[in-house]
Design goal:
Layout lengths: L11 E7 L7 H13 L4 E8 L3 H17 L4 E7 L5 H11 L4 E6 L7 H7 L3 E6 L6 H4 L6
Parallel strand pairs: 1-2, 1-4, 2-3, 4-5
Helix pairs in contact: 1-2
Length: about 150
């Protein structure tokens, strides 16, 4: 019998809440796809929005579909609420749908996120990072990411 000692990298879920923004989410979504594709483990992207950001949601959906052509191995999900929800409620819903052991919330307003409440509501490792991700983000969020 052969013993496997190599540990698999943790699964990661990127949650991108679409909020009222001056900038469009295209570059942000494309960058998350690129980072996800280069990760050696399982990655998924969940994009969440409200009906109030209807145009931004449409643009995010298009960016997701275009990125999926280039990065077909990244699992994606879009959640669009028909009513206005607070960002923390959106993120909690995203976490409930997430398959990843580690959750990375990508937002341009990290101060709005109540991470301690979200972490307590989930048994997963939750991190909040700024929108403009760099390629080293997986190394910065903690151990066991390669």
């Amino acid at each position: 019998m052969i013993k496997m000692t190599q540990q698999l990298p943790p699964t990661i879920t990127f949650i991108i809440p679409i909020q009222k923004k001056d900038n469009l989410p295209i570059e942000e979504i494309t960058r998350v796809f690129t980072i996800s594709e280069s990760y050696s483990g399982f990655c998924e992207i969940i994009i969440i929005g409200n009906a109030a950001e209807d145009n931004a949601i449409k643009i995010a959906w298009l960016a997701m579909k275009l990125s999926k052509i280039k990065h077909p191995h990244v699992r994606t999900k879009m959640i669009n609420f028909t009513s206005q929800l607070e960002i923390n409620d959106q993120i909690e819903t995203g976490i409930k749908h997430a398959l990843g052991q580690k959750i990375i919330i990508v937002t341009d307003n990290p101060e709005e996120i109540r991470s301690e409440k979200i972490s307590r509501a989930s048994n997963k490792d939750v991190s909040t990072v700024p929108s403009m991700l760099d390629a080293d983000i997986l190394e910065k969020i903690g151990p066991n990411t390669e």
